[in-house]
Amino acid sequence: MQHLGARIVSVAPGEVEIALPYSERVTQQQGGYHGGAMGALADIAAGYAGLTLAPEGQEVTTVEYKINFLAAFQGGELRARGHVVRAGKRLIITTAEVVHLDDNGGESPCALMQQTLATVNKTY
After folding, report:
1. How far apart are CA 75 and CA 52, in angstroms?
2. Which residues lie closer than 8 Å to 2 by C-beta, 6 or more apart?
């Protein structure tokens, strides 16, 4: 997250929001946000949301995710809002909505993701 310039905006049980400002680090050849950066942002937000509900002594790891890219944007920043749909003992199902915030505060849908996390023993 530090390399990409992302920052945590908010954390609550089952909910995490992360911001990603526009920079060369997260763009593709046409100047728009790269899909890989959007996917990473969604994966991180939803993964951290799942981690907030993981059983004591457990960590989470992504098993799979599916993402739909809705629109391309330049400038401003992206916000990924991760949300836990169901938290089980072994699997946690999450979603993440990625939106673009323009310089005037306008918000537009950018991507939607659904994710499956598995709980694993914490090793640190």
Report:
1. 31
2. none
Sorted by where each starts, the structural domains of the chain and their CATH numbers stand as 7-121 (3.10.129.10)
Q: What is the residue type of 106?
A: G
pLDDT of the chain, 124 residues: tens digit per residue: 888 899 999 999 999 999 999 999 999 999 999 999 999 999 999 999 999 999 999 999 999 999 999 999 999 999 999 999 999 989 999 999 999 999 898 999 999 999 999 999 998 8
Rg (CA), the chain: 14
- Edge-first strand order for the sheet with 91-101 is 7-12, 15-21, 77-87, 91-101, 107-121, 58-69
The pair of structure tokens assigned to 27 is 């763009």
What are the φ and ψ backbone dihedral angles of 48, each rounded to 5 degrees? -65, -35
Cα–Cα distance list, 46 to 18, 41, 95, 112 (Å): 10, 9, 6, 11
Identify the bridge partners of residue 12 per DSSP, sorted by sequence position: 15
